[in-house]
Design the sequence.
């Protein structure tokens, strides 16, 4: 992966994490945490469902899938936080 690909992945991860934090209120983790949640969420979504394919544009697919994965991840994290 080149430096431009890494920067795009970080930017998409930040957007996905931010959107997921807005959807699931009270579970934002700041910029760095949102990037991590967004990237992990995108990986989780990709492993579970593959390519989202709802939109024709690849970046919109990545943002939509990453956001959905990050929302699921935040909900799971919230369940574990409440259990402890």
Sequence:
């Amino acid at each position: 992966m080149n430096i431009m690909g890494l920067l795009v992945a970080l930017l998409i991860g930040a957007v996905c994490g931010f959107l997921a934090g807005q959807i699931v209120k009270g579970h934002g983790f700041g910029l760095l945490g949102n990037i991590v949640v967004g990237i992990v969420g995108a990986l989780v979504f990709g492993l579970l469902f593959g390519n989202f394919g709802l939109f024709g544009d690849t970046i919109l697919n990545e943002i939509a899938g990453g956001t959905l994965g990050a929302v699921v991840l935040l909900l799971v994290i919230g369940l574990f936080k409440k259990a402890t």
User: Anything to note?
Assistant: DSSP finds three helices and no strands in the chain. The helical segments are 3-23, 30-49, 58-83. The two ends are 39 Å apart (CA to CA). The chain has a mean pLDDT of 79.
